[in-house]
Specification:
eight-stranded mixed sheet, 10 helices, about 290 residues, about 35% helix, alpha+beta, globular, five-stranded antiparallel sheet
Length: about 290
C-alpha cells in the first residue's frame, strides 16, 4: 500500500535543497457562524533563491532561440516566492462553499519571504481546511492526485444558540505502520558517522520550520475541552521544529519514525516542551 507523502517528505523530494517554511493559520468565528480565515505562509529566502535558479534553468532548456527571452520573462513574473493573488483567489473555492477571498499582502523578514491572506466565510459548517501546509509550496498543485493524498481536512460543525456550539473534528489518522524489519535494516546500514551527518542535515533543513493552527471565537468561551486555551483562542497545533531538534534523542526519534502525516507528527511531538498539540479527536467550544 502506498503511504501518504508527509509534509516533511515533500521537502526532501523538492530537489533535496536546504531550507524550511513557516505556516500560521488562524480561524476566527463569530457567534452566528460566520468569520474569517487568516493564513500566513513563509519560505526561507535561501530555498526560494535556489528554486528560482532551477526554474530559470528549466525554462532556458525548454526555450528556443525565438522565444527564449519571453519565456524567461514569464518565469520571472511567476517565480517561486512571489505573491500570486490569482492563485490565492482560486484557493477560496477549495476552502468551501461561500468562502471568498478578501485580501493578500507580501510578508518579508530577515530570513523568510511569503504572504498573508485573508478569506471570509458565511457559514463555518461549509469550511474545509487542510491542516497539512505542504499544498502551499509553489508547484505542489501540479502533483495532481498525489497532492490530494496529502490532504488532512479539519471539519467544523456549528450550532447557533445561546450559547453557540462549535465542534472541531480533527483529521482521521491515515498513517501506515512501518514494518519492523525495515526499521531494523536501516539501523544495520547506518554507522555512527553517517547517522551524525544525516542528523546535521535534517537540523539544517528543518530547524527553522514552524507550523501553527488556532481557532479564535469573537466572543467569550463558556465551556471547552480543548487542551490549550488562552482567553478566546484555542491552539490546535503549534509545532516548532527547532525545539524538536534541540535534543539529539528527539532528532533520532524523528528520523527513525518518519511521520507520514501531521497527525503522526503531533503524536510524536506531544511530550516535547514548548510544542502544543491537540489530541482530542473532537474539540468542543461553547461560546456567546
Amino acid at each position: 500500500m502506498r503511504k501518504i507523502l508527509s509534509f516533511v517528505t515533500v521537502f526532501f523530494l523538492v530537489l533535496n535543497l536546504a531550507g524550511c517554511f513557516q505556516s500560521n493559520t488562524l480561524v476566527k468565528v463569530r457567534p452566528d457562524g460566520s468569520g474569517a480565515l487568516e493564513e500566513t505562509f513563509l519560505m526561507s529566502k535561501e530555498l526560494i533563491a535556489q528554486m528560482k535558479a532551477m526554474q530559470e534553468q528549466m525554462a532556458g532548456a525548454m526555450a528556443d532561440g525565438n522565444n527564449m527571452q519571453a519565456k524567461k520573462g514569464k518565469g520571472k513574473d511567476q517565480a517561486f516566492g512571489a505573491l500570486n493573488a490569482e492563485e490565492l483567489k482560486k484557493k477560496a473555492k477549495e476552502l468551501g462553499e461561500g468562502v471568498t477571498y478578501v485580501s493578500s499582502k507580501k510578508v518579508t523578514t530577515d530570513k523568510f519571504e511569503g504572504y498573508k491572506t485573508i478569506y471570509a466565510f458565511k457559514d463555518i459548517n461549509k469550511l474545509r481546511f487542510n491542516q497539512n501546509p505542504s499544498g502551499n509550496v509553489p508547484g505542489s498543485q501540479a502533483a495532481g492526485k498525489e497532492a490530494d493524498g496529502k490532504k488532512e481536512i479539519i471539519v467544523f460543525k456549528f450550532t447557533k444558540g445561546k450559547p453557540s456550539k462549535l465542534v472541531i473534528k480533527m483529521p482521521e489518522d491515515k498513517s501506515v505502520d512501518k514494518p519492523e524489519e525495515f526499521k531494523g535494516d536501516i539501523k544495520k546500514e547506518q554507522d555512527a558517522n553517517s547517522e551524525m551527518m544525516m542528523m546535521a542535515q535534517m537540523k539544517e533543513m528543518f530547524g527553522g520550520m514552524k507550523i501553527s493552527l488556532a481557532v479564535e471565537v469573537m466572543g467569550s468561551i463558556e465551556r471547552t475541552n480543548a487542551t490549550h486555551r488562552e482567553g478566546s483562542k484555542i491552539t490546535l497545533m503549534e509545532m516548532d521544529f527547532g525545539k524538536l531538534f534541540e535534543q539529539q534523542e528527539n532528532l533520532k526519534k524523528f528520523s527513525a519514525q518518519k511521520p507520514d502525516t501531521i497527525e503522526d507528527a503531533k503524536k510524536m511531538m506531544k511530550d516535547i516542551p514548548g510544542i502544543k498539540v491537540e489530541l482530542n479527536k473532537e474539540v468542543t467550544i461553547d461560546f456567546r
